[in-house]
Amino acid sequence: MTAGADPIVPPARIGMLGGGQLGRYALLAARVMGYGTVVLDPDPTAPAGRVADEHVVATYDDPGALDRLAATCAVVTTEFENPPAAALERLARDVVVAPPASAVAVAQDRIAEKRFLAGIGVPTAPFTVGRGPERTSGTDSIVYPAIVKTARLGYDGKGQRSVASSAERDAALDELAVECVVEQRVPLDTEISVLVARTVDGRTVVYPIAENHHVAGILDLTVVPARVSPGLAAEAGVLAVSIARQLQYVGVLAVEMFVSEGRLLVNELAPRPHNSGHWTLDAAVTDQFAQQVRAICGLALGSPDLTTGSVAMVNLLGDLWSGGEPGWSSALGDPDARLHLYGKAAARRGRKMGHLTVLGDSGAAGVDDVVARAIELRAGLLRR
């Protein structure tokens, strides 16, 4: 079903496919606003399931579970990009699904995503497509080094191989043995992301541009405002809004971009609130999760403006728990720091367990200071 002209208001029920931390925050925002909430996730300990009115413990393609959501919810959304397309299509027969299944289908497949972007004239890094023994069949025009990325189910550096030659590319394709994108490495000035929220009738807001730093393919640090020129920031916002419009997107969309020799190249789309937007919980008039609820329900979109001069967010991975519970005292003792823990049952290496946000002053010095403080506070967690 497509959304109608009338907004969806409390106490209507919002359904969520996926029970991770993104879903947890979105459902907490929905509950504060007075909505009912239900989560579909096969993990009985899923963080979002602990805060929902109902947790349906079943697989994402379970017919009975999907029928339960369709029968009891006014709108169903998702907190991750890989729900089965058939599940979304089944739901859409009977209930509003936002973002639409067609948009999620593009964002969950790197090949479809790259071709969509190319088709609407959006610049990306040069790429080609290959698979296992078929490789690229002589069509490869990539200049090496490059990165081989699985078309589906790859995130936080998973399903990726760095290659320095066509021979290494072929070996990586043989090893992965699934459809892949072979993406040329480009000179990298920095990485940024743009959060845009859009309603079904085309209203949009854009958050301040975020500057992102990754370690081993996992987001490590986000800084807002990004240390890029005002002109480039404005261009990034316009590009993200154009992509959302072309997708007929509804909800919060994250558009990840490379800045390469002063030029914007779109890297990936995330059809949901995003890790690089967690700073909004503490430093935006309307956080990305409340904005998601507003967008999918057709309400007035809230202001995305910063409420502080600058903000830095660092991820807290399971590695910090390797020697026991981290020492939270130093972080909690800083009046400018905000600690968020996701309530996950087990800490594992590379698993996102929480994040730490630090607020600071405006200007270049303020941004540099808040980054240094966030990194220092995280390092202090190991001093138990």
Overall description:
It contains eleven helices and 18 strands. By secondary structure, it is α+β, with helices and mostly antiparallel strands. Strand 10 and strand 11 (204-206) form a beta hairpin. Strands 10, 11, 12, 13, 14, 15, 16, 17 and 18 form a nine-stranded antiparallel sheet that branches. It has a five-stranded parallel sheet with strand order 3-2-1-4-5, with helices on both faces. Strands 6-9-7-8 form a four-stranded antiparallel sheet, sandwiched between helices.
What topology emerges from the helices and strands here?
Elements: E1 13-17, H1 21-33, E2 36-40, E3 54-56, H2 63-72, E4 75-78, H3 85-92, E5 96-97, H4 101-107, H5 110-119, E6 127-131, E7 146-150, E8 160-163, H6 166-176, E9 179-184, E10 190-198, E11 204-206, E12 210-215, E13 218-224, H7 230-246, E14 251-260, E15 263-270, H8 280-283, H9 288-296, E16 310-317, H10 329-332, E17 337-341, E18 352-360, H11 363-380
Parallel strand pairs: 1-2, 1-4, 2-3, 4-5
Antiparallel strand pairs: 6-9, 7-8, 7-9, 10-11, 10-12, 10-14, 12-13, 13-16, 14-15, 16-18, 17-18
Helix pairs in contact: 1-9, 2-3, 3-4
Quick structural summary:
The chain is α+β, with helices and mostly antiparallel strands and 384 residues long.
Query: Fraction of residues in helices?
Result: 25-40%
Low-confidence stretches: none
Choose one word for the global shape. Answer: globular
Mean pLDDT, all residues: 93
Strand content: 25-35%
In angstroms, what separates the terminal alpha carbons?
A: 53 Å
How many DSSP E strands?
Answer: 18
Helix and strand element order: EHEEHEHEHHEEEHEEEEEHEEHHEHEEH
SS field, number of helical segments: 11
The major pleated sheet works out as:
9 strands, antiparallel
Structural class assignment: alpha+beta
Radius of gyration of CA atoms, rounded to a whole number: 21 Å
